Structures are given as C-alpha cells and as structure tokens.
Amino acid sequence: MSVAGAISPQKAPGSSAPLLEIHDIAKRFGQTEVLRNISLQIASGEFLTLLGESGSGKTTLLRLIAGFEQPTSGQIWMSSERLDTLPPYKRRVNTVFQNYALFPHLSVRENVAYGLRVKATPKHEIAVRVEDALGMVKMKDFVEARPATLSGGQQQRIALARALINRPKLLLLDEPLSALDANLRKKMQSELKTLQREIGIAFLFVTHDQDEAMALSDRIALLRNGAFEQVDSPREIYSHPATAYAAQFIGQTNLLRGEVRGDYASCGAIRICPVRGPDGPATFSLRPEAIKGALDATIGTPYMTFKATIRQQIYAGATELLEVDCAGQLLRVRVPAGEPLHGEHAFVFSPRDAVRIRD
Amino acid sequence: MRDTKFTSRSPLLAAYSTLVFAFIYLPIVVLILYSFNRDGVGGFPPRHFTLDWYRQLFSDSAIWDSVVNSLIVAAASVAMSLTLGLLAALALDRANFPGKVLFRRLVLLPLILPGIITGLSLLMFAVFAGMQLSLFTVFLGHGTALISVATTEIFAGLQKLDRAQEEASLDLGATPWQTFWRVTLPNLKLSLIAAGLLIFTLSMDEIAVTFFLIGRDNTLPLEIWGRLRRGITPEINAISALIFSVSVALIVVWYRLRARTMRSSPR
Question: Which domains, and CATH codes, for chain A?
C-alpha cells in the first residue's frame, strides 16, 4: 500500500512539492472514531478521488480540509502554510457542495460573483470574471435566472462556476454528481474531467461510485472505516489491489484462498505457479476477465489450467459472465459473448494475473 | 377537485360551514354597514347612506392622536422585539450553553402568561424603578412581552434554513459577519416580515398590558374602550371599518410576499 509520499506517475507535469499535505489526521465525534490517523498528499493539478462507502469518513475528511470541522489530532498543510488552524474563509480552497447550496435569494450572476463581492473586488473585474466563469461552464445565457428555475445539471454548473471564481488552488467536490440521473451524470463526468484538465486546478473529489472514480481520477484514495485501504492510480488499484476489500470494491474479482509453499500455491483445486512471497496461508485476487476458455486461449506461458462446470451464463452484450464451479469453488469468468455453454470446460489463466493480497 | 366533491356530496357540511363563517363575519359586515348609516347604530335595516361619521371621525383629533400613539408604540415594539427575538432565536438554534432549556422556557413564557399578570408585574417594575407611566412604559411592555412571538417565528425560520448555504458563504471567503448579513438574514426575510406583522397587529390592539402601563396619552384601543363606556357611536363603527380595511390590506400584502418568496426558493 502506498499512502504518504506516493505521487502517481500520472500527476501533472512540473509539480514536485505537494500542494496539500494531510499529516496524521484523526477525527473523533464523541466515542466514534471517524478518521484514524491518516496521511495523504495531493499534487497540484491532480485529480484525486476519495472513494468509500457511506460512513467511511470521506466527507469528514473533505470538511476538515474546507474548515467546517476541526481535526482531533494531526495537521493539514497547504503549500507550506498551516491550513487546519485557519477559519474556512481564509483558506484558498473552495467547495462544490452535494446539493449545490446555491443562494436562493440571489440570481445566477450574484451567486457566481459572491466570492469576489465579499472581498470588495472592483466592479469591472467582477463583471469580467463572472462572464469568464459562466463561459467556462457554458451558462452565459442564464445570468439573471434564479437558482430555483434551473435544472439539477444547470445548478451543478453554477455551483462549479461559483467555486472556481476565487481561483482556488484546490477544489473540493462532495459527491457533486450524485443528484443527477444516469445519462446526465456520464455527460457531466466527462465535462468535469475536461474542465479540470483545462484549468489545471487540483480536484479532490468525493464519491461512493467506483465507476465514477475510475473514469475521472489520476489517483484514487480508497477509504474504509476511516483509514486508507489503498492510494494508487485506477489502473494500479485494478491490476494490483492491495487488499481483498480493494479488489472487491473496485471491479469484480475472484478471491482464491489457499496455502503457499515455495513458489507454488494451491487454492482448492486451483494451482498457481510461480508465486512470490513467504510460505503460509495466502489470498489471491484473480479478475474474471483474466480467466479464459482453454480453446480460445492466447495466453502464453506459463499458464495455469483448471476444469469447471458451467452453472450460469449471464449475457452482457459484448461479453458474458460465466459462473463456474471448480470442485466446489465458485468462480466468475468473463468471456467474449458466444454460444451457450453447458457441462464441463477447461479454463486457463496466467499466474501473473493472480495477485497476492492482504485479506 | 377534492373540494368540489365534498360540497356536492354533503350539503350538510356546506350549510354548517356557511353558518360558521356567517357567525364570524356577519357582525363585521353589520358593523361596517352601520358606519354608513345616517341614523346611527339604531334601527333596522340601515337607511340613508352617509359619510358624515367618517367626516366626524377625521376631524376628531383625540382619535387621531391615539392612532399616532398606537402606531409609534407598535413600530417601536416591532423594532425592539424583532431585534431581541432574532438574537434569542440565534442563541437557541446555534449555541449550547448551560441553562439553555430554562432560557427557552423563559423566553417563550409570555406567550402563555395572561396579559393581566404581565401588565401588573411590569407596572410594579415601573413603580419600583421610579418611572413615569407614559407611552414609553407601554412600549417597554409590548416590546418585551412580544419577544416571545418574534423568537418563536424566527426560530422556526432558522430551523428551515439550509446550513450548507452558510458554509458555502464561508467557503467563498465571506467572514461570519458578512455571512450573517448576506445569507442568514435574507433567508429569514419571510419569518421576520411575518413576525413583524404579527407583533404590529398584536401591539395595535393590545388592551390588558397597556391598561396597566398607560400614562396620559391613550392608545387607540384604550381610546375606543373609553368612548364605548359612554355609549356606541357610529364614529366607532367608522374607525373599526378603517382598522378592518387596513388589516385586510396587510394580510393581502403578506400573502403576496409569501407566494413570491416561495416561488424563488428551491424545491
């Protein structure tokens, strides 16, 4: 698991010192431990996603960075300035709230201009920057509208423009897409990603949706019960999950439990060779698509093989998911869509795809 | 849709409702009608339309002095009870302090306390404090007793306020003070207007507390009360008709405002 200090290879070019440093942060509400001494660094220009189930502490961490909550212990630094001791209005961080929290009594223009107005920015500058911000989210035609007259997607854009007008170094987004329907959500995902690339501001994005996290992020920080399970790029987390939880939360997987002896592991009827690491009980994650039917296998050596009985065949367009039974062990196999299958078949997989994980 | 079904299906209910409304509103209609009757309050049906009573009313300086007095007291009471009520409601909504429950009960107590108790105790207070009874003591009485009304109304408004809006304001760089003026207060506009109108009306027709605290200058209700003891004159009908019209106008204004604010708030 790479937590503190691990900056992904996909980080924005030219940034070496971290933009935000979360150092050994713990947060308790009464007896409940919401965050357990976690550390994390965010690089400038990076799109980092806090992914976790509800109650994992992701929103609390966001609120600590925004300044709406105080940490029980630990520190937060932003470009060599201590952040956690500052009130929210002195932090160069802005937030897009889950339900947007637009001001209902102000027009779109006044909503977007709010951050500049309270700092007594000259009128002509406000006008120019409001225009820019609304252009960025393609909402120039709605300057005089009241938030209540806008659709969810439009409110979302206004909330984004309002948060970006202060030119924060870091934008916090608290499940901003969760209120939108599926189609609009996909569209907003890609717009959000494009926007983030263009303006080059670091985004810290909170979501419980693993597909969203995969699609958007440079890195994903997977939270579980107030601690990081794994912090890595989406590809790295998917191909090399650190734990059984990470392997199951992000994508589907088969967990193979067994015993390692030397370079050889036996998990029920399935053998894996070669394997690395110490002898003893071990768990492996094997993605369904890493298993292939023996007949259409172009898998190279070395490869492992096993026989299993087809139990279920679930059609999904380009592919289908097989549920197979290998001597009492149920496995999922993703294969290209084809003929209906019955009875016993041989399957192969490469031992490289069986990733040894912590249970 | 449901309403039309109701009336068409149960004529008994319709008749019953009509009777209830007649009981409430018929006296008011009669009162207004007789303010235009030349022969005064005697005789039925009213004959000979006249505006004489209104002419008489408009030249009656004692009545108008009392109207002005009432307006001054009501306006000042609104200002005082809204200010203190807002602070009390903010404390109840946001702060945690020892004795909060007791504080809440004490603030709301005047709502259920009989006016005679409030009036008497304020009178004793004024006497102990060596104050001359005057419109000022009346204002103190109204203003303090009506804080409870303001607090209840504004507290309800605060409970409905989306706290994320205040967080968004702080997040965008507004200080807590700016946030209060630019976000919290505008969101409470409706509650403040509602409380203000209610307090204004309550103060305008308050008799019990006023009775104990009044000095030489009468408020309108006390002036009317004083005259009634000398017999009902159509002039009283006329002033009542005017008060009624102003009240209706205020209610209409209030509904319009509410409808507009409802439309512009999300969801």
Answer: 20-247 (3.40.50.300), 256-357 (2.40.50.140)
The string of pLDDT tens digits covering residues A234-289 is 999 999 999 999 999 998 999 999 999 988 898 888 899 888 888 999 999 999 99
Q: Which residues of A touch B174 (CB under 8 A)?
A: 89, 114-115, 118
Tens-place pLDDT, residues A95-142: 999 989 999 999 999 999 999 999 999 999 999 999 999 998 889 999
What's the whole-model pTM score? 0.81
Residues A147, B174: C-beta atoms closer than 8 Å: no
Say if residue B145 is exposed, middle or buried (CB neighbours under 10 Å; 0-12, 13-18, 19+).
Answer: buried
CB A115 within 8 A of CB A152: no
B190–chain A nearest CA distance, Å: 11
Adjacent-strand bridge partners of A322: A313, A333
Q: How far is residue B211 CA from its own chain's centroid?
A: 18
Report the number of secondary-structure helices (H) and strands (E) in chain B.
Answer: 15, 0
The minimum CA-CA distance between A148 and chain B, rounded to whole Å, is 4
Domains of chain B with CATH codes:
2-34 (no CATH), 61-264 (1.10.3720.10)
Give the orientation angle of helix A108-117 with respect to helix A123-136, to 10 degrees. 130
Residue to mutate among A64, A95, A172, with most B CBs inside 10 A, is A95
3-state SS assignment for residue B76: helix
- Torsion sign over Cα A87, A90, A91, A97: positive
Higher model confidence: residue A178 or residue B89? B89
Q: Which of A93, A96, A111, A114 is the best mutation test for B, with the most CBs of B within 10 A?
A: A114
